[in-house]
Amino acid sequence: MKRILIFGGNQFVGRSIGEALVEGGYKVYLFNRGSRPNPPGAIHLKGDRNNSQDLEELLKDRYFHGVIDVSAYEDHQVEKSLIALQGRYGKYIFISSASIYQDEEEAPFKEGDRVGKNPVWGEYALNKYRCEETLKKVSKKYNSSYTIFRPFYIYGPGNNLDRETYFINRILDSKPIFIPKRRTRVHFGYIGDLTGNIITALEKSTFDNETFNIAGRETITFEEFIGVVENILGKKSNVIWVDEEVHGIKARDWFPFRAVDLHGDISKLLQAGGKIEYSIERGVEETYRYLVELSLLGKYELSPLETGILKRTYIK
């Protein structure tokens, strides 16, 4: 039985990966502080990854066929983990972010495009970029393999962020959906496709020492995404277009996304043997079914900012 170590593993992406690996017959170890319930069937290594002593004590003399790092947001976290492991693993998979692409005008982004700090994502993007560079550098030192994934907007069952639910709840409750006036194009990725390709990367050498964009096959505008949700719910939305400049606000003040183009080229992933199985329609339908089954949908109240927008001039 192959042993897989996950840094994180108890919230949305990490939890979904852990559950898929357990179901796939892997022996799964989760390194986290235990602040949330861990997936059934996984072995908990309770510790703080920022603490070198915790890392050394809990990982000493252990070998893992694969390591999946979901929780690193700063380069020192990656470096400490790699030093503690001392190369005792088959492959290190790091979950980075598509936010690290620097120039929005280069979309659809390719893996070789410029990356690092940018005006939209700031320090978060810079830190993810530094994590990637640290992984590459230290992997050479230990002569070990790595794979880097750059997800775009990930959604699906278990999502702890109010993204797809932002639209679903509002349509169900007949509440207005406020969308930035600028019609941007984005890339969504279903959680099942992310977990599936991570498992593929563990097993395929074509993923060794490479970086991959990952998302669905379709790019989409928020207006088009709303149309998908409308069709699944069988109910029309009430969309209000908001001019950020007129109101003196930014999309992130009320909207769960940035008003920028964020989509990429996933051909490299497919050429390496990766697969994208979920269309946006299928993914949203699966998500909606999950939300209904677990009674996770509820009434939505407009925020004070949204109420203020309603009272002022807007473009519809």
UniProtKB/TrEMBL annotation:
GO cellular component: cytosol
Domain NAD-dependent epimerase/dehydratase: 4-215
Database matches in InterPro entries: Epimerase_deHydtase (IPR001509), NAD(P)-bd_dom_sf (IPR036291)
Pathway field: Carbohydrate metabolism; galactose metabolism
SUPFAM superfamilies in UniProt: NAD(P)-binding Rossmann-fold domains
Coiled-coil portions: none
GO MF assignments: UDP-glucose 4-epimerase activity
Listed Gene3D superfamilies: NAD(P)-binding Rossmann-like Domain
Family label: Belongs to the NAD(P)-dependent epimerase/dehydratase family.
Record-given protein name: UDP-glucose 4-epimerase
